[in-house]
Amino acid sequence: MPEDQPAPEASRHALIVGAGIGGLATALFLVRAGWRVTLAEREAALHEVGAGLQLSPNATRLLARLGMMADFTDLAVRPQEMVVRRHDGQVLARPVLGKPAEQRFGAPFLVIHRGDLQKVLRQRAEKAPGIEIRLGHRITDLRETDSEVTGIFDTASGEQRINADLLIGADGLWSRVRPLSGLPQPSQPQEKTAWRGLIPREAAPIFAREAKVNLWLGPNAHLVHYPVSGGEAVNVVAIIDETWLEEGWNAPGDPDVLSRLFTNWGADARDLVAASPGWNRWALLDRAPESRWSRGRITLIGDAAHAMLPFLAQGASQAIEDGASLAAHLGAAGSGSSLTQALQLYDRARIARTARVQSGARRQGRIFHLSGPLALARDMALRLLPRNAALERFAWIYGHDAESPRG
Fold it and tell me: What digits encode the pLDDT tens for the residues 168-205?
């Protein structure tokens, strides 16, 4: 079938490589748009691992349209404010969240453990007609013709091939689909690492149990913490300047490194770091914006497309946006637009959007880790800002609707 003659809606088939948050969310959006989906995951079992994450209104409004908000009732926490502190504990700002932010943007801010979000998405995908999940499938190659694309996988039972109308790389920072599709690899190391700890509620300092997002700013490091798992645990992430680089999310971290680094921080920060029963770390990577993610019948979403630093807390939210935007453009392809045109529109909308988020995250990271007179100037500016200034500054992020024609 010629590329500009799309298959009948019921027969359109997408192969998604990677069953993380981005891949699972994209599968759900695509099924809603009338596609059949195969999710191919290299792991033999889906493990709900990772740190906590923040979901801002630009993502939660999309998940709400999938009918998922009730799924988060006992898992997510709705923070009432963000508390920004200097490393010595002095409060610099208290941007409001909670109901005022939800009324402003039409959807809530949530904090949730990454594993809980992935579990909810997986359960939805397993129940959804039209989604098949294949585990233990590691992609090794792909083939493309005018009429289909084929993913070639190494499995326990030997080589497996899956044919589809579209192949979507949702396989993260160390994507295999990216180089197979002819795009450059790898992302750029940023000489920073993120360390995550998960503290049971009863072991966490009392101030850390409150429904707030907490941000501590210090020279060459910062801390973020908030309750997750319905308040039963406190997620802590320390981001430090460090040249270590290793693939993956779960390398063990030596707690003595953090203890020494935070020696001169306030007592509350030191107590928080000391309360974590263990640490895992991962290297932070970034990527310069590109002119395209799509080629023929292949495209990318999430970190495979646009690795970004976490300083705007947008990694998961942007992956969810990608899936919603891609499904919206592909849904329009059923009315006569070609697949190629749909992917071009997706690239045009999402590359510009994520490039702006990437740039904002880089800038925010530099601000977070200032020292000396520049840090003093930053702190003074934060004290003078009105409470709603931070939300309004990033309204272009939180107010965005990825399912709009310009999504």
Answer: 999 998 899 999 998 876 567 778 899 999 999 999 99
pLDDT at 402: 97
Q: What is the pLDDT of residues 376-386, one digit of tens each?
A: 999 999 999 99
- The amino acid that residue 79 corresponds to is P
Residue 25 in contact with residue 320, Cβ under 8 Å?
A: yes
- Each residue's pLDDT tens digit, 135-145: 999 999 999 99
Question: Strand (E) positions, 229-326?
Answer: 233-241, 251-252, 280-286, 298-300
Q: Are residues 60 and 321 in contact, defined by beta-carbon separation less than 8 angstroms?
A: no
Rg (CA), the chain: 21
Residue 194 contacts residue 310 (beta carbons within 8 Å): yes
Dig out the tokens for 84 from the structure.
């920004």
Task: Report the C-alpha gap between 363 and 350 in whole angstroms.
Answer: 20
Question: Active site includes 226?
Answer: yes
**How is 304-338 classified by DSSP, letter by letter?**
HHH---GGGS-HHHHHHHHHHHHHHHHHHHTTT--
The DSSP H or E segment spanning 36 is strand 36-40
Residue 149, helix vs strand vs coil: strand
Q: What is the mean pLDDT of residues 80-92?
A: 96
Q: Where are the alpha helices (DSSP H) in 66-133?
A: 98-105, 114-127
Strands across the sheet containing 36-40: 131-134, 36-40, 13-17, 166-169, 298-300
Q: pLDDT-derived band of residue 1, with 50, 70 and 90 as boundaries?
A: very low
List 105, 195, 216, 226, catalytic entry: 226
